[in-house]
Amino acid sequence: MKKMLNQNGFTFLAALMIVVIMGIMLGLTGQPWKTIMKREREQELLFRGLQIRSAIAAWNAKSIRAPTPLNDLKDLLLDPTSLEKKKYLRRLYKDPMTGKEWTLIRDTTGVKGIIGVASTSNDVPLKTSFSEYSGLDTFTDKKKYSEWRFVFGPDPGANLATVTPQSP
Q: Has this prediction a pTM greater than 0.90?
């Protein structure tokens, strides 16, 4: 009997079709995965920003003598003005949205030094409501992560200067 059809390339074509279908399916799951990762980094931004803000508040409330301005975030790791070993922050956190240094927010009067931090990212945030966080109601409806300013003090809009970190 003669061979009626040549089926030598059938397995190759079937494997090629499976690879194409898998690529399409992975492409469809990529976008939700990107959103999930952005949401996780956003949560980490809130955590780290609040930790730094709390450490700055503890720095400013630390002594009964004249307040020492906070000139560097590294001073929160080990207070150079104290005789005892005081730590206000476990470690220096980087901006989770960019992986770089924070934008420092300074008191323009020079009395308090650094009073807050902000992200350097100009991405649009996913989160727009902050009712579950106390003290973050000013973040509502901000258009960029860089507008989320983690500032210690009663009036976060008064006498502030932002300092963008220098690249080495």
A: no
Q: 36-80: per-residue pLDDT in tens?
A: 899 999 999 999 999 999 999 888 887 665 678 888 999 899 888
Amino acid at residue number 37:
M
- Dist CA 83 CA 19 (whole Å): 65
Residue with tokens 């720095």: 59
**Which of left, alpha, beta for 141 (phi over 0: left; psi -120 to 50: alpha)?**
left
Number of H helices, E strands in the chain: 1, 4
Query: Dihedrals φ, ψ of 6, to 5°?
Result: -95, 115
Helix (H) or strand (E) holding 65: none
Cα 54 to Cα 64: distance, rounded to the nearest angstrom: 18
- Tell me the per-residue pLDDT of 78-87, one tens digit each, with 9 for 90 and over: 888 777 888 8
- Greatest CA separation for the chain: 105
Q: pLDDT digit string (tens) for 124-154? A: 998 888 877 777 888 888 899 999 999 987 5
Nearest to 49 by CA among 154, 164, 165, 148: 148
**Beta-strand runs (E) in 5-154:** 103-107, 114-118, 149-151
Residue pair 158/149 in contact (Cβ under 8 Å)? The answer is no
